[in-house]
């Protein structure tokens, strides 16, 4: 009986530890005041389409990007100093807040939808795999594999990141796969799939 109680106590303590380690969305909202100028108060970044929407993004993915900016694994002159003072709890709180927000969906350029959808769902004739294989049919991503949610993301931001993966100025994806994917896409294909993603939900 004592052994059973002891085991139950350890399980309860472990569960409490996990709960305490999770981000606090309310604290994240307070901390996000510094982020709002670029990413918007709710993470929908309406100011500049080159800045990503954080709303609805997987918390693990947000945390990885913040860690990478802080460590210099992902380069950005604006984000590096913003991430530098953040500790792990700050990052968890911000991730909890932004992931809890609802992403707004944009509208795809009509002349690029057909080509963009084909690339997203079937890949390119040059051998680039379908985006939907990792990012999901509706662009929701894969939280377990840390593949980001793309649906509704700004086309300009998506295109910028694909080009950065292609030219090697960004290389902080989980397994280096994005460089190979982007290398097989032309500028026109990047523009088309980015537009499709902007209206995807």
Automatic annotation (TrEMBL):
<dbReference type="GO" id="GO:0009055">
    <property type="term" value="F:electron transfer activity"/>
</dbReference>
<keyword id="KW-0349">Heme</keyword>
<keyword id="KW-0813">Transport</keyword>
<feature type="binding site" description="axial binding residue">
    <location>
        <position position="178"/>
    </location>
    <ligand>
        <name>heme c 2</name>
    </ligand>
</feature>
<feature type="domain" description="Cytochrome c">
    <location>
        <begin position="111"/>
        <end position="201"/>
    </location>
</feature>
<dbReference type="InterPro" id="IPR009056">
    <property type="entry name" value="Cyt_c-like_dom"/>
</dbReference>
<feature type="domain" description="Cytochrome c">
    <location>
        <begin position="23"/>
        <end position="102"/>
    </location>
</feature>
<feature type="binding site" description="covalent">
    <location>
        <position position="134"/>
    </location>
    <ligand>
        <name>heme c 2</name>
    </ligand>
</feature>
<keyword id="KW-0732">Signal</keyword>
<feature type="binding site" description="covalent">
    <location>
        <position position="38"/>
    </location>
    <ligand>
        <name>heme c 1</name>
    </ligand>
</feature>
<keyword id="KW-0408">Iron</keyword>
<dbReference type="InterPro" id="IPR050597">
    <property type="entry name" value="Cytochrome_c_Oxidase_Subunit"/>
</dbReference>
<feature type="binding site" description="axial binding residue">
    <location>
        <position position="135"/>
    </location>
    <ligand>
        <name>heme c 2</name>
    </ligand>
</feature>
<dbReference type="GO" id="GO:0020037">
    <property type="term" value="F:heme binding"/>
</dbReference>
<feature type="signal peptide">
    <location>
        <begin position="1"/>
        <end position="21"/>
    </location>
</feature>
<feature type="binding site" description="axial binding residue">
    <location>
        <position position="39"/>
    </location>
    <ligand>
        <name>heme c 1</name>
    </ligand>
</feature>
<feature type="binding site" description="covalent">
    <location>
        <position position="131"/>
    </location>
    <ligand>
        <name>heme c 2</name>
    </ligand>
</feature>
<dbReference type="InterPro" id="IPR036909">
    <property type="entry name" value="Cyt_c-like_dom_sf"/>
</dbReference>
<dbReference type="InterPro" id="IPR008168">
    <property type="entry name" value="Cyt_C_IC"/>
</dbReference>
<dbReference type="Pfam" id="PF00034">
    <property type="entry name" value="Cytochrom_C"/>
</dbReference>
<dbReference type="GO" id="GO:0042597">
    <property type="term" value="C:periplasmic space"/>
</dbReference>
<feature type="binding site" description="covalent">
    <location>
        <position position="35"/>
    </location>
    <ligand>
        <name>heme c 1</name>
    </ligand>
</feature>
<feature type="binding site" description="axial binding residue">
    <location>
        <position position="79"/>
    </location>
    <ligand>
        <name>heme c 1</name>
    </ligand>
</feature>
<protein>
    <submittedName>
        <fullName>Cytochrome c, class I</fullName>
    </submittedName>
</protein>
<keyword id="KW-0249">Electron transport</keyword>
<dbReference type="GO" id="GO:0005506">
    <property type="term" value="F:iron ion binding"/>
</dbReference>
<keyword id="KW-0479">Metal-binding</keyword>
<keyword id="KW-0574">Periplasm</keyword>
<dbReference type="InterPro" id="IPR024167">
    <property type="entry name" value="Cytochrome_c4-like"/>
</dbReference>
């Amino acid at each position: 009986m004592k052994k059973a109680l002891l085991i139950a106590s350890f399980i309860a303590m472990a569960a409490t530890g996990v709960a305490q380690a999770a981000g606090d969305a309310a604290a994240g909202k307070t901390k996000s005041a510094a982020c709002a100028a670029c990413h918007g108060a709710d993470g929908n970044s309406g100011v500049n389409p080159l800045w990503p929407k954080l709303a609805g993004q997987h918390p693990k993915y947000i945390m990885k990007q913040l860690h990478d900016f802080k460590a210099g694994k992902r380069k950005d002159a604006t984000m590096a100093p913003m991430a530098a003072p953040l500790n792990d709890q700050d990052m968890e709180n911000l991730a909890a807040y932004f992931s809890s927000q609802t992403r707004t969906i944009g509208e795809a350029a009509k002349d690029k939808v057909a080509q963009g959808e084909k690339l997203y769902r079937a890949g390119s004739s040059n051998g680039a795999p379908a985006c939907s294989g990792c990012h999901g049919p509706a662009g929701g991503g894969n939280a377990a594999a840390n593949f980001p949610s793309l649906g509704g993301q700004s086309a300009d931001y998506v295109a910028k990141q694909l080009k950065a993966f292609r030219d090697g100025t960004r290389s902080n994806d989980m397994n280096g796969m994005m460089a190979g994917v982007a290398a097989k896409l032309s500028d026109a294909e990047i523009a088309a799939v980015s537009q499709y993603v902007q209206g995807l939900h």
